Amino acid sequence: MTGEKKGLPLTDLQIDALREAGNIGxxxxxxALSQMVKKKVDLSVPRATILPLASVPxxxxxxxxxxxxxYLKILGDCSGSILMLLERESAWSLAGLMVKGDLAGExxxxxxxxxxxxxxxxxxxxxxxxxxxxTNLFFKPSxxxxxxxxxxxxxxxxxxxLAASEDFVxxxxxxxxxSGVKIRGHLVLFPDIGTLTIxxxxxxxxxx
Amino acid sequence: xxxxxxxxxxxxxxxxxxxxxxxxxxxxxVAVAMFDPLKKVGxxxxxxxxxxxxxxxxxxxxxxxxxxxxxxxxxxxxxGARQKGIRCKIVGGSQMFEMPGSSGQDGDSEGKPKPKHxxxxxxxxxxxxxxxxxxxxxxxxxxxxxxxxxxxxxxxxELEISSIYHGRTVI
Lengths: 208, 171
Hints:
The complex is a heterodimer. By secondary structure, chain A is an alpha+beta fold. Chain A contains five helices and eight strands.
């Protein structure tokens, strides 16, 4: 009947609707990525879960895992955030696909970081576009910010912006994988409570 | 003996056994480690936000700096520490992302001038609460723009900090 955790009672139907929304968003992001790297991109079935704050970093392999994180705030009709995470090696592999050839003396690390930030921005934008069309809402992504560090430390930042009054957060998470190369990453949508309410209403399964 | 107890975001633990408590991958959060060296009682709080502003108080004191400091002291005293003997070390409070312009939501709704980032505010709030209770701060590694893991030995008060970019230190 209810979501598996206290705090936010969601029905199975509502969880399914969120997973489907995540699927459509990540599907669009996957297409964008596939076009950028000219390779096939596989997506996992999204997870839509309500997690206690302490266990959010487990989503991406634990709080000490070195990752590249590209974070965008969602503005417009809704608020929340969207985060793309790549394990460190995956991040450099992906950047390597984007940044090729002679950089004419430019700092390679700087260029690659910038390429990753841009990729995160494009994928998140594609995700939000699809989600916006599905729900007939306007989602405006903020300027992306980039960090490469421990997953937990990056998550802190996201949680602080979301969880001022809640001990649980809703996450919709999709794993993606670029075939042929070792690139794996995660797209994580963190809708805040108000956004969750609006999205579920638009999907026809409102919170009672 | 050296059992590792994980203290996650917005959690708090105390012990009068010799255990090592750890908080992994902290960014803007602050680890507040307190111990009474004589009674060998120690505890760790993984603080997430500066102040509870009254709400949430009963629900999860470990989440907010102001309530966590008070709660941690109470819990230590309950485990046998003497309030006058308690020492404190703090770690964390970094800024992981360079935010373009004012980030809005980090700010205060009362329209104060451009606020400090949340990590710095967490550190400030912890120090203020410590001052209020007269608990001496005997070690600190805060700020910067990188993530940290801490391991805290509750009986010795030794606090080990590790990070990807800055190696290991002990305070």
